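JOB MANIFEST
job_type = single_chain_structure
chain_count = 1
residues = 1976
[input]
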Amino acid sequence: MAAEVVTKRVDALEVTSPNVELSVVADPTTGYAAIQNNIPVVRSLIVKNNHKETLRSVDVLVSCTPAFAQGARFHFEQLASGESRTISPVDLQPDHAYLTQLDEAEKAAIRFKAVADGKPLAEINHPIEVLAYDQWAGTRSLPELLAAFSMPNSVVVDRLLGKASALLRKNDTGLSLDGYQSKNRERVWKQVSAIYSALLAEGLHYSNPPASFGADGQKIRTPERIFDGRVATCLDLAMLFASCFEQAGLHPVVLFKEGHAWIGVWLIETSFPTSIVDDVMAVRKRVKSGEFLTLETTGIASDQKPSLRWACSTGDAYLEEEEKFRYVVDIRRARELQIRALPSRSVAQGPNVGIAEEAPPSIEDMPSLPPLDPELLPPTEVSTPDTPEGRLAKWKSKLLDLTLRNRLLNFKLTKSNLKVISHDPAILEDKLSEGREFRVKAAPQVMDGTDPRAAAVFKGRTGQTPLLAFAEDALAKNELVIDIPADKLDDRLTEIFRAAETSKEEGGVNTLFLVFGLLQWREDKNSEANHLAPILLIPVTITRQSVRTGFRLMRHDDEALVNPTLLQKLTNDFQLKMPSFEVLPTDDKGLNVETIFQTFRLAITEMPGWEVKEQVHLGIFSFTKYLMWKDLQDRQKQLQENAVVAHLINNPGKAFSESDPEFAVDTLDERFAPQQLYTPMLSDSSQLRAICVVDSGSNLVLEGPPGTGKSQTITNLICHLLATGKTVLFVSEKMAALEVVHRRLNSIGLGPFCLELHSAKAKKSEVLTQLGKALDAGNAKTVRDWELEAERLAGLRGELNALVGALHKTHPNDLSIYDAIGTCIKYAHWKPASLDWTDPNQHSRKTLDSLRTLCRQMAALAGQLHDLSAHPLLAIKRTAWTPSWQQELLDAAHRLSVAASTTQELITPFLHILGRPETGSSWSELAALDCLADVLLKAPTVPVGVARAATDEVARNRLKMLRHHGLQRDAAWKTFEGAYREEVANLNGQELELQWGEANSIWWPKSWLAKRACLKRFGLYRIDRKAPGESKANDLIGALRKLNEEDKALSAMAAEATALLQDEFNAHKTDWNAVDAHEKWAKEYSDALAQLAVGDIALHGALLSMLLPYVTENRSMLRPDGVLGGALVRYRDAHRELVSAVHRVAELSGAKNSFIEEPHAAGAIQRMLAQLQGWQHAAHQIQPWCLWQNNREKVISAGLPGIVRSLEAGEVTLADIAEYFEYTYQSWWVRKAMDREPVLCAFSSADHERKIAEFKESDERFQKLTQQYAVAKLSGQIPSSTALAPGADSEMGKLRRELTKQRNHTPIRQLIKNLPTLLSKLKPCLLMSPLSVAQYLEAGHQPFDVVIFDEASQIPVWDAVGAIARGKQLVCVGDPKQLPPTNFFNRVDEDDGNLGEDEVQDLESILDECLSISLPKLGLDWHYRSRHECLISFSNATYYDNRLITFPSPVTEDTAVRLERVQGVYDRGGSRTNRAEAEAIVAAIEKHYLSPEGRKQSLGVVTFNQAQQSLIENLLDARRRVSTKLDQAIAEGTVEPMFVKNLENVQGDERDIIYFSITYGPDAAGKVALNFGPLNLEGGHRRLNVAVSRARQGVVIFSTLMPEQIDLARVRAAGVRDLKNYLDFAIRGPRALVEQINPTGLEPDSPFEKQVINQLREKGWTVHSQVGVSGYRIDIGVVDPRAPGRYLLGIECDGATYHSAATARDRDRLRHLILEGLGWELHRIWSTDWWRNPSEPMQKILARLEHLLTVEPSEEGASEERSTEIAEPSEPVAVEGAAYAKMVQPEPAPEQKLPAYRSAEIAGGNPDHFYDPESRKILAGQLSQVINAEGPIADAVLFRKVARAWGLARTGRRIEELLRTLLPALVERTMEGETTFYWPEFSQPAQWQEFRVADDTDDSKRQLGEICLEELANLASLILAEHGATSVSELARTICRLQRIARTTSDSEVRIRKSLTISSCGRKFEINGDTVMLRK
């Protein structure tokens, strides 16, 4: 079909049809080189359904003409309306044979055709040029594909290299083609010269290339073809050289300028950072540095035979033609991108290729090259085995750089350092130590020839130069003189200042030092080059109040140190034994600088060329890696004790043993009670889940995309861990990230328990201040209301969850009540059918689906069957259809039709006789006529009397009676029949009966005679005349009496009988069967008339009168041969044939008894004929009708007769039956199911909203109480006993002594070492950088319970493992989609002129390593940072698969990302800046800060490179100097200062507004470079993700570059691709992501929401559904009619979005809090309310809308002032504080005194009776009393006390023996030598934890020997717990002091030491020499 093709550019085609839109993105060319290197022919194919309906079974067919690639077919089961599908890439399988044999380019086409069910929907043809096998496409495709045409494996190349190798050996036997193995540029030069000479000797000829080959490409001759024809173009020759260089192990580069190509080669083993470089300055810089060589290749194809030097100078000259330069292709980099060389097609021709035999020219000497800077040498990769030891050695080698690349070993004057003029470094150091602040000033022009004074004269008189004298005077005035002109000083200091600040922020370390002394050294004695290395480094800081003031310098609080890298170098390479300098020598004012210098002088005395230079320099130095190396070196064994580090060392790449977290996030509320989680900051479910997993003890990787609350999660996690008694080490390299967490910890009251030791901020005074605050925070009670509030919160949470659970719970049938309510609302216009089921759970999903299937099967017949209630086949009930049956049915129907017509015809005369209508008879009337006809035909055989009286029931009854008597007489006669004559009946039976009775009553013989007389009377009538026997007399007499009676009755009825029967009556001889037949006929006749009359008396009489003549006088006419009789016979037969036909049809149709549905309805035959005619017309529907009947039966048997009734009643159409069933079923089910849900039955929206409000209040209050609870719990761990004075040697004593000092504090590392146990109590959480971990923690520091790494994606493995090994459990927090670790900050001290920003190298991060070993992983999903959803939508769609839950802002068009186009120029070959963009940004900054609204918003600037960053900073500083208002506004701006950063250091920062300088764009010639700096690198897209996700409220992109100027066909970097898409997104908005995300405006979530929307629209409101672009959407947005750009009200339903929340907090608090903070007005409606009565909730909505219309809309940005406590990390403290009410401090606990020893008071006795037996009981009681009161007590003390009470002065052996015998038998006792200690009742010495001290009373004092060892150990445990580790002697002194013992003897120390080692207490203490501490 025809399709209109819209071409945007040569590689993008789109076709739109009414139904389907096809869009294709493909390269304009392809070829073997492209396909071999995995470049798809078609990059993407997008299929979009524009139809309103869903398209099903869509196929897209792809074919190629000619068939250079195989076709493809893509099948889509369905495409929803508006849905688009993207196939990327479309991988067409190439025809290799076709492509390899292609010698010329061909025009081809790729055809895309969309079809559905065989019908074409759309078609598009994409033209493409298929290149020849040896053809390069130039810049039309990826330029780096040129590397495919470098063919190092060619046979020709091997032969050429053979000649070159021979030439090398001839020149010097030590030379060979060994590439870069020699690491010598001269040897590399000679290899190049040999190859050049070998090619020069070949006598090749030059051929001009085609025009514009650099852009359009050309065919490139292979080496074989070149030598076959001896002709080559410049590009042919360049690729020939490239092939030779590559095969020789050298790295070639092909260079292009307009119309020409030439070759380059690296002289050292390195390469350009990217495969394509279009910056000529970067190339020239490499040439000038002596690293890179370029040479013109066409000279070898000329007759002049030019030298290699000429070729090089010519090649270099091309680089000066900047306007003509295009780009270079680095072959090595291209190979790293997996671009492979083409296989040769000319292998078979190899032997025929001629190689010149003449001797080539000799090898040229290398020209003078600039000395190679050691920094330019590629870092030497230490080859380490792939073993655990090797991996550890590799990590250490990454941390320790002992090469000349390290400025600590090879110091040079660069932009990053300044020389300080100092006459005496020692005096300068003394002044620094005194804390002086110095003003920095430039060196003046003193006696330099510009004035009359002479410097030589001055020096001769004073002994020093004028500058030194000036510096000395300046130093006295606290001024530092810098050896630099005044006009350059400020710029240089600014650069150093910025570099130092950046190092602090990014690396967490101060890198600004004053260097005192330089060691001049040499690598060996024969080395000509001298190197300088700093000796003493003293940390300093420089500050300025504003850009308008100068810089000041002062001493930093870090420790000064002797260059540790230098010391390691001297030890490793020169075996110099130097002091460790761990403690630097000092004098009375500070460090003893001269002593340090002298130490070095003495060490190098024997080293020629070495000396100490007493110079002072200010500069940037970094030795952080050394400290971390030292940490790994000192802790190699400890590393293996950590499971994660051990796994990384021993099993890298293999899965870690721990499994992923098993519990689902939606079970959080169920699994964890509120009091189980100590999370005082508001957190979402993904954050809580992470905390729960960590709480379980699992190691965890926590992925936190931008703005998902990583710092908040970490804060909550730290609080939870601390509250559960664990110690935490939080590590972050970036100071900003650490400060955010620290600030949040402070905001929740945990600041006193956290020690911030980030290197950049770790001042000794600040550390001590933090420790002092921790001591002050001790002694607090637990919060009382916490438990109660937790229970209340749990109850409310359970009730809220119960409603959601009941509403959305999936039942056995897979339905939820909410879904069913929605269905009921949707189909409320129907009346549901009745269903008889009672149990809502009786159906499973499977059984319900079977019911649905039945209904869908019925609905499928809708197209074939219509109007079931009046369907012509309604009478057919058969369910099984066959063709034969159908024919049989139709035949039977035909016969029935004939029979019906015949019957209709023959009934007419009969009806005429009866006076009835000739048509319209019913089935019952026809049957009655049949009966009547049959009766009338019998009438001639019936007596006229009977016929006349047939309808007289009395007459019929007389006939019945007559027949009855006749039959009774016949029965009586049976007794006489055959033996008696008829006359016997004349005997009087009664008389004979009396006679026989008398005969039996008299005596014999009279009786015999009498009997005989009677019997003889019977004998007279016997045929044989014999009297019957006596035995038969009774029977005969009885029968005779019966005969007499019946004869009498017959005689009485004779007259009537004769009238009815006429001659047929003959008394008892009448034919009674005939009488019966006549009576039956009469009955039939009467019934037939009655049946015809149907209760109509008049009609009955008329029929009787009309028929009477025929049954009486004219009965002859009724004979079969009569006129009337014959008609009756014919009618009767026809009717019976009709009945038979009806039965047959009924049987065939399956109707059986229901075929005749209305037997009494008139017009039966006419209806039947019409029905049969309908059957004939609907014969084609019989088959579907049978299917319907079959389904009907199944539906009925399945329990759905109500559905069938409604269907057949016409209440619903067959097409709607599936929906009708769904409605009917769910309408029935929802009521039954709700009956079983008390929560729903009792639901009240008002009450539920009350619960929500109470839940919010309770949750917020519980957070605050948790905050207080955690503080109180941690306070309880802090030593607070004032009764214990700390000993001087104890940890507490040392700390308190440090707190009292004013200066000369102990270094931090030593201080931490001095507090091994106390520190973890005071500060259970340390916040450090990886450096400060190595710097401040000793190797033996107690391991932490948990180590948390933040921004782990930016920390290299070797930086991290030392800190990880400090803990038992690891939490690694970061984002693998954000910036990886780089070497960017390792270059802050390098000369900017040497390297470009594009040479940033990405490193391995600890996050990637943890992911590679499959450490358990979770992700944070809720995005909070962006106040406008579009700020994150690009990253969400591009990098996070739209999994982030973002929240829409209340605007209908989100334009927070916008692009400001700048008409600028990118200075590609120079400064790498875009000045126009920089000026535009500075102007925007000024406008921002000078506007009242802008000043309220924080601001940040992000640039693509460091050069643009510096330019903006410089321009801004210049503008601030000019504008006082601007300078003041920036200085007094928001709490968050403005920043200007680049891609490499902006991660972790955020601001309200971000200005983004793209920087790159067209250069002065209008050319757009292929190089976009770091974006071209492997991790470029990760950098872009960081940059575009920093803003909270808006992004403004300042760009010269437009998206259409980025040609993706020329670059394959993902970062560049994403930049193009982001620029497009900034211009077009979210619609630019249409292929990646679903647009706003999706269909409503449920029918319930749809009905709400419809009703609102009917009321005139503009309504949008599903507002948002990510996982969370507001169900309904009502547009404000006053301001169509914003929403007036957001309406939330209780549907899928509501239910999707994992926790009650997510659902009922957090979402609303965030949305209201964004400015939404929200209203919730409940489906249950709407279902019951939709008008009431609608009225509430309308009332709310009307109310909002009366409220003035807030100004734009007013909502920005709202905040939520879930806000992102860098929110100001003030904002965070506003999120919480002021914290109520826990109540202080009352001061507790130590328990004192109390003497028991016992009653005395008479000493004279002491030994009396009567006293023994008293003594025994007293002993027990004293033991229980004072025990454990020594035996001597016990006996003495009792004896003294009895007045006995001495306690002798006799007294002791007596009292010992009186001791209770079961008393617990312990032995210590000869002393026995007695214990109170129920005491167990091993578990006893008590102790007693002495007070002011004498009775409480005891000697140490009188105190048992267990009690002493308990007291020691208290002291160590309170004061930390101490010496044993100090511990003994403290215990003696508590026991009021004046002197602490050596015996006391021995006893104390012994108490620490007893078996019951030994496990508590750890003794190391004289130091004792509690074990953990």
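[summary]
The CA atoms of residues 12 and 744 lie 51 Å apart.
The radius of gyration is 56 Å.
exit_status = 0
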